[in-house]
Amino acid sequence: MVWLVSAGPGDPELLTLKAARLLAQADVVLFDDLASGPVLDHAGPQAQLIAVGKRAGRPSAKQDAVNALILSHARAGQQVVRLKSGDSGIFGRLEEEIQALTRAGIPFQIVPGVTSASAAAAAMGMPLTRRLTARRVQFVTGADVTGGLPGDINWAALADPAVTTVVFMGQRSFPALARGLIAHGLPPDTPALLAEAVGHPGQRMLPGTVAGLAAMLERDGPASVPGLILYGPLALPGGNGSGTPATP
Ligand SMILES: C[S@@+](CC[C@H](N)C(=O)[O-])C[C@H]1O[C@@H](n2cnc3c(N)ncnc32)[C@H](O)[C@@H]1O
């Protein structure tokens, strides 16, 4: 059995009880960069901890090599935990690992978890949906396999002002995304939030507007920590989101 376990955004208190139990029992834990740190303290002393990090801009283990490692430990009869950040089913390349396990005839179970999108909204003190103004939430990626903005963006959906949009892996491409959104009718003063290192000691919340955040990222470039961008009719505490990005 291979357990495909979600680690949550980084704060170990946001691990599920099931994830903590499986970590404590595991013989081997294969973890991503973003699923490291204090969450790994839940692994037992017997556990072999193997980093298979995949982080933008840094060399990383290729997916095939990760799949091969999972299979070889499982075939050796070990209790394998494959630990992935946030919720493993969201932009986590879970499907490739499921396919490899299925082809090899190795049973697996998925343990869901707290996605960084929910954790970012909670850290900012706001909901992801609003009864009257945000009746839909969409999770999108700001980077395709090339690392750039995907070429087949559904602009009508992404520029819909009545939706909360959460952009994963999008700090680098957000200036280009924002230009496209505004060209497709999204008001430049639409509330936006850059949520960096959610659930980690360096957590930083930068509320502002779509145009303001894009200008800041264009000027300063992306930080070296993971970040999410949320935009739409956000219920940013203390305002309508038209202020300058600032640390709360
Ligand atoms: C490969 S995706 C994995 C997403 C993950 N499965 C989830 O549900 O949060 C990695 C991206 O998720 C976002 N992310 C993951 N953890 C984060 C955190 N703790 N703080 C801010 N963004 C995070 C960033 O956009 C990062 O580039």
Automatic annotation (TrEMBL):
<dbReference type="InterPro" id="IPR006366">
    <property type="entry name" value="CobA/CysG_C"/>
</dbReference>
<comment type="pathway">
    <text>Porphyrin-containing compound metabolism; siroheme biosynthesis; precorrin-2 from uroporphyrinogen III: step 1/1.</text>
</comment>
<dbReference type="GO" id="GO:0004851">
    <property type="term" value="F:uroporphyrin-III C-methyltransferase activity"/>
</dbReference>
<comment type="similarity">
    <text>Belongs to the precorrin methyltransferase family.</text>
</comment>
<dbReference type="GO" id="GO:0032259">
    <property type="term" value="P:methylation"/>
</dbReference>
<dbReference type="InterPro" id="IPR014777">
    <property type="entry name" value="4pyrrole_Mease_sub1"/>
</dbReference>
<keyword id="KW-0808">Transferase</keyword>
<dbReference type="InterPro" id="IPR014776">
    <property type="entry name" value="4pyrrole_Mease_sub2"/>
</dbReference>
<dbReference type="InterPro" id="IPR000878">
    <property type="entry name" value="4pyrrol_Mease"/>
</dbReference>
<dbReference type="Pfam" id="PF00590">
    <property type="entry name" value="TP_methylase"/>
</dbReference>
<dbReference type="InterPro" id="IPR050161">
    <property type="entry name" value="Siro_Cobalamin_biosynth"/>
</dbReference>
<dbReference type="GO" id="GO:0019354">
    <property type="term" value="P:siroheme biosynthetic process"/>
</dbReference>
<keyword id="KW-0489">Methyltransferase</keyword>
<protein>
    <recommendedName>
        <fullName>uroporphyrinogen-III C-methyltransferase</fullName>
        <ecNumber>2.1.1.107</ecNumber>
    </recommendedName>
</protein>
<keyword id="KW-0949">S-adenosyl-L-methionine</keyword>
<dbReference type="InterPro" id="IPR003043">
    <property type="entry name" value="Uropor_MeTrfase_CS"/>
</dbReference>
<feature type="domain" description="Tetrapyrrole methylase">
    <location>
        <begin position="1"/>
        <end position="213"/>
    </location>
</feature>
<keyword id="KW-0627">Porphyrin biosynthesis</keyword>
<dbReference type="InterPro" id="IPR035996">
    <property type="entry name" value="4pyrrol_Methylase_sf"/>
</dbReference>
